[in-house]
Every structure is written in C-alpha cells, then in structure tokens.
Amino acid sequence: MSISTNEQFRKKVDRANKTARIIISFGGYGVIISIIFILLFLMYQSLPLSFSVSIKEMLSFSYDKPDKRIIAIGLDQYQEVYYVLNDKGYVEFYRLSDKVLLLRDSVGLNKDEKILSISKGDYLKDRFAVGTNSGRIIQAEIRMLPEYGKQDRTIVPHFKVKDIYQAEIPTDSIPAHIEELVFRQNDDYDFYVWINHAQELMLRITDDYDEYRKDLTEFLGESKLTKLEMDYNAEKLIAGTISGELFWFDISDPEEVYLKDNWKVSDTPVSSLAFLIGSNTIIIGNTDGQVTGYFPTRTLDNVFRFMPVYSFDTHAAAVEQIYISPRNRTFLTIDSHGKAHLNYSTTNQTQIEFKPFDNTVQAGAIAPKSDGIILIDSKNQIGHYKLEDEHPEATLQTLFGKVWYEGYEKPEFVWQSTGGSDEFEPKFSLIPLIFGTLKGTLYAMLFSIPLALLAAIYVSQFSPKWLSSVIKPTVEIMAALPSVVIGFLAGLYFSPIFEENLMAIFLVSIVVPVVSLFGIMGWRLVPEVQRMRMPLGWELILTFALFIISVWLSFSLADTIENLFFAGNIKQWLYDAWNINYDQRNSLVVGFALGFAVIPIIFTISEDALSNVPDSLTSASLALGASRWQTVYRVVIPAAAGGIFAAVMLGLGRAIGETMIVLMATGNTPILDLSPFNGFRAMSACIAVEIPEAPVGGTLYRILFLTAFLLFIFTFLINSIAARISDKLRKKYARF
Amino acid sequence: MVNMKTTLRDNNLDTKVSAKTIIETIDLDFYYVPEEKALKTVNLRIPEKKVTAFIGPSGCGKSTLLRCFNRMNDLIIGSYIEGSVLIEGRNIYDKQVRLEELRNKVGMVFQKSNPFPMSIWENVAFGPKVNGVSSKSELDDIVESALKQADLWREVNDRMDQSALDLSGGQQQRLCIARTLANKPSIILMDEPASALDPISTGKIEETIEELKKEYTIVIVTHNMQQAARVSDYTAFMMVGEMVEFDQTNTIFTNPKKKLTEEYITGRFG
User: Fold this and answer.
1) A634 CA: distance to closest CA in chain B (Å)
2) Where would you tag: which of A113, A175, A195, A428 has the fewest CB atoms within 10 A of its CB?
3) pLDDT of residue A72
4) Which one, of A212, A333, A348, lies nearest residue A273 by Cα?
C-alpha cells in the first residue's frame, strides 16, 4: 500500500515537473520569438522602400476616329475617365472601362483653323491654352470632378473656354502661326509666351485691368528658337534654341522683363523642355537623345545660375516629349522612335525603359496621383499603364549618400521630411540622424563614464560602509527617475540657466580640477600622523567642501573674466572669433541630462563587479606591500574589467535608445556638426517627432520604420558585442 | 637595525633560545570586538632565520597572531590591539610606520592560493613593481630568482606569459611563495600554506620551506602537527588566545613542560 501511494506521489511530481518545464520553456522561447517578431515586423514595414518601379499595361485599345490628329490626352485622378483633344479643337471625354463618350465639346475654332501648339497651364490646375494657325490663343478649362452618389462615385467632366486672344494678326500674304506656346497662370496674371511664324518671341502678361506685351526677340541675337518653357510660378522663362543654347528670362516683374542668363547645353538642338514640380529643375531633351536636368544655384561669384546637376540615360533618337509627374520628381521622356524612359530626377536614375507602341508616341500624360500613365500613338492607339512607384525618393543613395537637392549648392546629407507645400521634396538622409544619435551618445558617455566609474570605485573600495549605504540607494533612485522628467528639467529649466551662466560653467570645468590639485598638494603638507587620524568618509566631506569653494569661485569670477577676455559676452565672442553658434538646447546640455540617465546603469553594474572581486586578491596585493590605490588599479579593476565593460556597453545601449531626453533637451535640428554648442536630432527622437506626421504606408512612415530597424540593430549589435567581450574578459580575469 | 639578544624575562614561556630575535610581541592583546580578547597578553620572541610553527586547536588565535605581524588585521573594521609588536626592534604599530614598507619586509602566504588573474611573470613581478622597481631586466632577474627559490622555475620558465590560473593547485601555492620572495622580505608568514593541497604538493612546499629558512625567518601556522614537527625549529602552542608554550620543536614534541601541551600533542583533544 505504501508503494502505491509512493507511486502516486512520484506521478504527481513528474506531472509538476512536466508542467513547469513546458511553462518555463514557453516563457524562454516566447522572449526569443517576440524579439524575432519585432525584428521581422520592422523589416516588413520598411521593406517596401526597396521595391523597384514597375509599369504594367492595363488597357490597350484604339481610339475610334483614326483620322483625327490628337494633340493632348489626360486622365482624372481615379483613372476612370480620359480625354483627348484633337487639332480641330474638339475635346472628348470617355470612360476608360467601357469607352462610353461622356462629353464632347470644342474650343471653337474657325473653319480651316488648326491647333499648332498647346501648353498645359500647370500640372494640377485645369487650364490649358492652344495656339492656332490663325494667330489666336485660346485658353480653356478641363475638369474631371468626382461626384458622389449613394453608393458610387462618378467622374463628371466639364469643359469651358475661358479666354480668346488674337495674338497675331494674319494678313493675306503672311499667316499668323503660333508655332510654340507656353501658358502659365499665377494669382495675379495670365502669362502667354509664344513663337510666331516670323520666329519672334512674344510675351503677354495680363490681368483683368492691365496688359503688358513685349517682344523679346532682340535678346536672342541670331539664335533660332525651338522650345519654350516657364516654371509654374511664372518667374523663369526658358527658351531653347537650335544650337543647343538656353535663354533664361526673368519675368517675375511684368514691367521689367530681362534676359538673366544664357548657357549652352549641347551642340544639338533643344527638342523638349519641362520644369518639374517645385519649379526649380528643368529637364532638357536634345535631338541627340541627351536628357539633362538643371536647377539654379548660387555659384562662387554669388549669382544664381542654372547648373547641370542631373543626367539620365541617353535616348537613341531626339527627345521629343517630356511628361512630368504631378506628385513627385518622376518624369517620362519619349523619343522620336517612340521609346519611353521613366526617370527620377533626385536619384539621377532612369528607372525603366519601354516601348509602348510600334509607332511613335503622339501625346501622353502621367495621372494626377502619379500612379498611371496614358499614351496615344500616331495611329491613335491608346495605352493605359499602371505605374507602381510608391517610394521613388528612398534609395540607398538618398538614405545614406550625399544628394544634391534643389536649391543646395552641393550634394549634402539632408533630413527634411515635410515641407509647407505639395511641391516640397522630402529629403531623407539617415546620416544626420545616425550622426545625432552617436553625437548625443558620445557627449553622454564623456560625462557619465568617468563619474559613474569613479563613483563605483570609491563606493566599492574606499568609502566607509555607512556612506555606501547612502550612496547606493540614492543612485538607484536616480535610475527610477522617468526620462521625461530629466528631459523636461534639462530642456526647460537647466538649459536657460546653463546659457546664462555659460562662462561660470566653463570656469567650473577648469577651476574644479585646479583647486582639487592644490587641495591634494595642501593635504600632503599635513603631517602624516594627523592625516591618519582622520576617520574614513571625511575625505568626501573635504572634497565636497573643495568642490563648493571651486563652484563659488567660478561663479564669482565669471563676470570679471568674461569682461576681461571675452568682450563681456562669451557667446558673442565664440561667434565672432570661432564662428561657433551657441544654441540654448545643445549637445552639452543633452550630455549632462542623458549622462544623468546613464550613470545609474554604469554605476550599479560596475560597482557590483568591483565588489565581487574576491578579498583574497586584495589581501594578496596588500600583503605584497601595494597601497590601496595600487591594489585597486592593478588588481581590482583588471579583475572586474568584464563587468565594467559590460556596464559601459549597457550604458551605451541605453544612451543610444533613449528618446525623451534627447527629444526635449535638444532643438532636434538634423545637422551634421560636431560642435558641442549645437543641437542634433537622434534617431529615436526623430521617430517620436515625426510619426504623427507620417501617413500610414507613406515613404516617411516606412523610413521611420527603417530608422527603428537600424536602431534595433545598433543596440542589438552593441549588446551582443558587449556580451561577447565581457564574457572573454571574465574568462581571462575571473577564474578564482 | 637593532638585533636583540634574547634574554630571560619574567615570562614563563621564555626558553633558551640562542638565535637572534627578529619578532617580539610584548603584552599583545587583540580585539575583534571591544572587550573580547582574541589574543591575551601574548609575549613571544621569534628567532631569526628559523622556522617557527604556531599550533593549536581551531580558533585558538594562531592566525590572528600571525596577521598581527604584517598588520593584515588592520583590514578588519572595528578590530584593534593593545601592547606592541617589535620587528627588528621597531614597534610596527607605531604611527610612523608605513604599512607598505612593513608588508614589503614581512611577506605572507595565504591558506588558499590566490594568484592574480595575470600571467605568471606578472604575478611574481607584482611586488617589486608596486614597490618601485620598473626596469624590465631587473624585474626579469628578480622573477627568475624568486621562482628558482620557490622551486617553480623549471616547471614554468617556458610559459611565463600564461595565466597563473592555468597552474595546478600546488604550483599556484608555490607561485604565491615566489611572489612573496620577489619582494626580498626578511620574514615570511605562512597561514596554513598546505592545508588545501594533496600530500605530494604538500611535500614540495615543505621542501621549499626547508630551503628558504637558510635566508628567511619563516613563521608558519599549521593544524598539522606532523608538519610542524617536520619543518619547524621552534613551535608555539596556543589555546583560546593564550600562548601556552613556546620552545624548540624537539622539546615541545618530546618533552613539553605544560600538561595542556602534552595532551594536545598526544591527541587527547583538538
């Protein structure tokens, strides 16, 4: 009987063992799995950044009036309706899905009148203007607006002629052709620039009351014009010539239009011109197939000039059309053989080459949301393509390399994720963020490592028991302080004080060591007998007194010294003498605040390591005639090296990952500058600051996830390296 | 240096010690905590260049007494002494005495071998280094001669850069002896140096001690009476903090004057 109960008991124990094993291993594996899951999730969120561009043909059909010459084609923002405009001035709207004609209208041309030139007023506005062979310029409006029914959405097209202008008067002998035309509209004026049959360059600026008309031909000399282009703010007029030259007219003041600059792009004629959104970069296509991008930037002689910044894959034939994306820096170039290149200006890349039709391309457009392309060929075959290119602005080059952004004087690392307008180009260099993280960490470690390690050595090796029993819990309370509190105090309370007493704080860092040195020298003058009589712990009080005296000295001397040597204002002096700018929330303040957060980690772990060095080693060293200090630095510190190293690395990991302090105590300016008086933006703070501004699934959103992923890898690597090295050190030193 | 001739004093423990005295305790009381004597009025004269063994049951104060000679007891917070300890005629508890100098002169080997987690060379060179020897060649000479004296040179001369922790237990203990010798002390205190070792290693240590006593004064604490009989010239028997009997080892083991000593020697207690 006793055996059976014993067996029951055994079974019970076995069952308990099994359950415990399952639960414990579940916990253990759970941790590993959740870390892997976080890693995978971060990767999953940031991976779409690396997806390449794709163009997929959705529809290919023929426009049912093959004899009409189409001069413009376009899509609505949902890609449900397209329009075509033919040279007879008729505009027709069709539904893409079933090719049903929705609206047919006309710009109202006379008999025998034909459209020779067309200019879309803007990439998002709905105006366009056409120039005819009888000297008229007609401005019209095309709109395709969604209307919402109970369940569905229908796109309703509108068409309206807005303005008719007789630009050139034809005579019997001379036709009045508008050969090339560019039309823009800004808040004040309508701008028309055209080339007439006589190769004259004409400008007309008009509003409801005034009209300025000017003949710009005189500026051109002998040059024969081929193409015209104007930026979307109507400030820069660019005219391309047959000799590959470009003329830049400043037309921002209608009463004072002048030729600002001219330069040569190529030896071959300019065959197409287009400004990208943002009105800075102009893309220039030549008849030899060259595609280049220029934008104005300040040159060494302090004037603005268009500089050749981008060049893209060369076409085999003349570049005849350029269609820009209304969303980003994507543009489509099409040559006279009907071959198309999809380019992205900032990354300087031709992403895709394709040949949409057997024939040449007649007209085309990129959809308003930059997610589709519609093209029509010379035989009126229409192709509708889906364009998938969600994150063209994020490449390895833009994330980690120097990029020459519009308006900058040279390629730089820039982080500027959002701007005021749709035309703003986001700049996503992670380098300033990584730099910021490392900079903050560096200053924090410079401040915290010496303090924490010296404190740990003092507490573990020298201080009397009662003192260490005060210091240790105090430091632990430091660790419990929420970082938002530290950040708040540092950013809003400490940094103004710091700024106000900059001179005094500089002095403290000099006076404290000097006074301490004198203090030590003075102490040595005290007879040894008296020195020995001082109870343990008093040295701290004496040191503290010295410290207070030094601080008092620094503060009382600050004004005098500032007046004597730094012209009364050290900040101004720094700026004048060294061109150093002082920000109130700077790296020094962060160094102190972040260091404050890191000190408890380094202190606690290294103090443990130091205290755990066995007494037998200390005794051996002392018995050999080594002094206390010799024992500490020759025996105790090497023996605790593994633990000390681990402590420093853990502190480093904490500093890298810390968010609130760097967020609140710096200005969060993503600049690359080692100066301790500048702020910085750390990766963690950047994520915290920008997540509210990042639409889910957008480029910024994914880049922030990439940043998080990098941060994870950073800390993971540091901790792994720390674990490995401290393990090795421990093996080397700690086998007692 | 004051070399005191041993003279008869009003102390029942005084014997016919003919050698020069190097350590002398005068009415030495030791307290771990106030009012509780761990050593009670110990008067003792240890002769120079002899091996003196302290024996006695556990807790009798023999290690405490040993540690008074290089003031290792100072590390114990709250402990203090009364009376004095003279080494070469000088009271080592005098305020003028520098601890580092004293310990340089009075080396110590601990019960459990405690080499530093460094190379063999670094271990032996540690003492001279902290006492101000910095020339590499000088240190090399010191290390070599110390290792030779500790009878370890042959075993380790080809691996001086290896960690001392890779040595066997007996080798580690002899390394600790060599480390002490490197300081060229005049006195070596040994606190049960062989208690953690196997008989062969113990034998080697004892041989080493035999060699060393030609040049050094050795004071050894042991709970092993055979060891005391084998290696020592003089033996002190202690009990509950009192020095019961101190005499030539022969005398103590063959003809003890005190009954207590005899009982202990013959194994009736302890």
Assistant:
1) 9
2) A175
3) 92
4) A333
